[in-house]
Prior knowledge:
By secondary structure, this protein is α+β, with helices and mostly antiparallel strands. The protein contains 5 helices and 6 strands; from the N terminus they run ββββαββαααα. The longest helix has 13 residues, at 108-120. 15% of the residues are buried.
Amino acid sequence: xxxxxxxxxxxxxxxxxxxxxxxxxxxxxxxxxxxxxxxxxxxxxxxxxxxxxxxxxxxxxxxxxxxxxxxxxxxxxxxxxxxxxxxxxxxxxxxxxxxxxxxxxxxxxxxxxxxxxxxxxxxxxxxxxxxxxxxxxxxxxxxxxxxxxxxx
Length: 152
């Protein structure tokens, strides 16, 4: 298939990622024209469909076992659900969390400070909120582990 080339060498066939060399988006996912439907498609989805002689539904997810978005090695691709894909992402710490998240309003340092102050018993949630310039509900979410779950 044009646009699909192996990257690296391996003693055992199909262990190495096959990196897509055509157009890629900013996250590294390749796109390839699907002649069967005359539309562009994510390259790894197209490879899976061609390998398994099927058409995927929109809600079906093709997971990269190698965690390489531009990989199109059929041995590295498996059918899964969005829930499985998100769980895999969280389990491997590849998701945006804490101050890595683009919508994070506080730093890890501040989240740890909030927990430390509260555990000391010196201030209640509202008082901590005033001290660190957050409302009480945000402080409660941090303390209850609804946000900043990854912090000790």
